[in-house]
């Protein structure tokens, strides 16, 4: 019987700390095709793992399929994220592989990114016949009407904004139960632009600054086994 690595328990424990309420934002760093780094905040949606394999955890987040980070991930699937939980004074740095799962009707490249060599969790899910599009729709359906509207902009995130007047005409809510033909069209646009972003960590660096002396532990995955090393903070 496989068990979740200790770092997952540490993150879940930190998240349940009363002073860490809402600390579900991490910063995700990518490197583009020209080797230039980029970093941005993203919302942690959930952990998941292949059936019967809690030792192979993945982090679920999401994005707009048209956003620059997607092209960066297509060029290089190695990413690192940093997660600071101020209430408990824990920093988690997770390094690993990312995959993007856009809609089949996404604008531009609608293919999902490949399984990187060594990405055992992604490979196991593939072997188990995991339905990524069903997961994408499930996560989309959990979003608020306001969030859904953010995937309706007629122009890609990061492109020049012609006028704020035009921006004001864009939908501000996409209700889950469409009340008009316009709602229905907007829901289709939002769903088409909505992409799942999955992160498979292979190294986790946990700096616990809420204890004295401070403790820092590095977890490294070797195949499907997690090793643990205490290091100098
Ligand atoms: C608190 C916060 C949470 C965010 N969450 C997400 C998210 O989950 N997914 C996302 O694509 N962008 C999210 N963003 C926006 C990104 O940080 C970024 O500005 C945008 O996605 C464009 O990034 P890119 O140009 O690197 O693709 C968030 C921003 C903030 C401030």
UniProtKB/TrEMBL annotation:
Pyridoxamine 5'-phosphate oxidase Alr4036 family FMN-binding domain segment(s): 5-101
Signal peptide (from-to): none
Any single Pfam family the record assigns to this protein: Pyridox_oxase_2
Region (Disordered): 148-187
Domain of life: Eukaryota
UniProt GO molecular function: FMN binding
Entries under SUPFAM superfamilies matching the protein: FMN-binding split barrel
InterPro entries found in the cross-reference section: Pyridox_Oxase_Alr4036_FMN-bd, Split_barrel_FMN-bd
Name by which UniProt lists this protein: Pyridoxamine 5'-phosphate oxidase Alr4036 family FMN-binding domain-containing protein
Organism: Trametes pubescens (White-rot fungus)
């Amino acid at each position: 019987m496989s068990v979740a690595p200790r770092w997952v328990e540490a993150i879940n424990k930190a998240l349940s700390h009363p002073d860490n309420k809402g600390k579900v934002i991490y910063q995700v760093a990518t490197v583009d095709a020209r080797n230039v780094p980029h970093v941005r905040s993203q919302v942690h949606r959930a952990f998941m793992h292949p059936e019967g394999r809690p030792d192979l955890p993945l982090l679920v987040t999401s994005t707009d399929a048209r956003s620059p980070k997607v092209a960066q991930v297509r060029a290089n699937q190695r990413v690192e994220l940093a997660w600071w939980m101020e209430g408990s004074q824990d920093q988690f740095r997770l390094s690993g592989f990312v995959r993007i799962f856009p809609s089949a009707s996404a604008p531009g490249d609608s293919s999902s990114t490949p399984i990187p060599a060594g990405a055992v969790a992604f490979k196991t899910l593939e072997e188990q016949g995991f339905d990524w599009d069903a997961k994408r729709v499930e996560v989309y359906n959990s979003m608020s009407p306001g969030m859904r509207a953010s995937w309706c902009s007629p122009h890609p995130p990061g492109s020049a904004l012609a006028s704020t007047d035009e921006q004001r005409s864009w939908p501000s809510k996409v209700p889950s139960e469409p009340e008009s033909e316009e709602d229905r069209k907007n829901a289709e646009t939002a769903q088409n632009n909505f992409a799942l972003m999955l992160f498979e960590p292979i190294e986790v660096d946990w700096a616990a600054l809420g204890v004295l002396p401070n403790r820092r532990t590095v977890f490294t995955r070797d195949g499907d086994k997690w090793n643990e090393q205490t290091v100098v903070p």
